[in-house]
């Protein structure tokens, strides 16, 4: 292509968020801050182009086994040099558009794929951004750039958790992020500033700093923001959701009741199952709204199983990005870190209205006859078990029915969904009237048939649940592999023992000596 | 989340009560399958004096399949690539469910003491390690100083 990626061209200096010929980017230069000089690895325009190419590709990149696209490989080569990494980050901040539904996820994916940055480059980047409360308060700001900076800070915080995160998290970074929460200017910046703070708080020392800082304000900024959790403005609603979640899970305020203790659950008989969800999904206190802010592909099933008849539920789309919403049995596995979710195996089927793809066995089928989903749209999910049909609809407009899943599965279905980074939706399992109920056939709703005890209705914050688990004890004669069942098997011919029957059934060779297992003898026989 | 297997609870409790010298592994507050790990560079190795951060994740079918581990701190080592991925047999085909988080981390620490350039993941590093070991070791020390020490 005539581009030499590794050439050390004329040494230059890059100006973050001020590509040539543009004067719309804010320049807030504090006098005491020395200008940071970056040695350009390649021309900024080239990096910008590569970043935009990747953004375009992510939308069509649907097969995890595919080769990495060429532009990604090129970006890796650039980012492998310290200053190149900084250039890639700067480009992302400058060029990723606000309206692209893949924008923030693209930043996380790209940064996660890039070679590891050193602490120095990370500190350099944060200096280059010239973060400060003044910057956040400037009369004119470029919303896109500030939003992207917040996304990048969040990714860096996640990558560097530990002592490095403390080093990077300076007072100025904290000031910059907190200022957005206080001024509540531009919900999309507030949202990603809040998410960045939450990720910095993965490191305990930072968490304490942030918590103290928040509590110093006359009115706790998160208490103000959590009031937006029911907003009909979907951007503010996300802010409210994240603020509430952070108050329940990360920045605990003494004396504040946790949301699950206050929420009115009367009339709600089916919710998302907080015991049947991958690790990073955030579930609202009423169990009906979910969100992912991690770069993994997070999934959840609902509490109610359907085996026969015809059933319908609706998902209200809050963010326009990639979610795979549909039906799954318990045989469907949540492989969040490999990027597999609902619709990516034999036992689940889903629709992704962002890329307009129906998913089954991780194979996409394009559905080009309807528009991509937008915040506020309603995805209808119908399963007609006797007729062996699953029918999705967007705002009442039906997609063509699909039936492959019935080749392997006839019963045991749950409403289920997977979420890419920064995606959110709300479920209606029938506790309120449907927007677009099917008119061509009779159907039932989960909520009229479901039942939950008061205990099951509690969406307890995960940290409390884990604390309870860690205090539980384990019996001493239990299987040395799982510690769940009693050890009762002897492997033959090697004679090693201490395993239960469930574990031994999964073994091909002895875990102790790797000898082939020819026979399993129970200790009591 | 899917109910947490007792195995993970048990291992976590033991890691907390009897930590391995030179290794710290702390579970994430919100995800019991994710551990923040710090390994101290072994004495008499080019990594001495460095603190190396890793992430360790227990997949759904753990212990039937191996934990996923990678370096977060940059390191100059023939068996660790630029993305921090580790080439270690027990993390792949030589995994056994009788191995544990602690044994895995001990093996990684041992790998730092004894790099194996004949089974490389980072080809350029391995090449140098074979043809000019003293220069490779100098590089490794330099990287340790630059990226793994809190000056």
Automatic annotation (TrEMBL), chain A:
GO biological process: proteolysis involved in protein catabolic process
Keyword Cytoplasm attributed: no
Domain RING-type: from-to ranges: 479-514
The B30.2/SPRY domain, residue ranges: 250-434
Keywords, sorted A to Z: Metal-binding, Zinc, Zinc-finger
Pfam families listed in its UniProt record: SPRY, zf-C3HC4_3
Superkingdom classification of source: Eukaryota
One example GO MF annotation: zinc ion binding
Name of protein: RING finger and SPRY domain-containing protein 1
Automatic annotation (TrEMBL), chain B:
Protein name according to UniProt: UBC core domain-containing protein
PANTHER family, A to Z: UBIQUITIN-CONJUGATING ENZYME E2
GO BP annotations, alphabetical order: protein ubiquitination
Residue span, UBC core domain: 3-149
List of catalytic residues: 87
CDD domains from the UniProt entry: UBCc_UBE2N (cd23813)
Pfam families for the chain: UQ_con
SMART domains membership: UBCc
Keyword list, A-Z: ATP-binding, Nucleotide-binding, Transferase, Ubl conjugation pathway
Keyword Nucleotide-binding included in the entry's annotation: yes
Molecular function terms, GO-annotated: ATP binding; transferase activity
Annotated GO CC locations: UBC13-MMS2 complex
TM region(s), chain numbering: none
Family: Belongs to the ubiquitin-conjugating enzyme family.
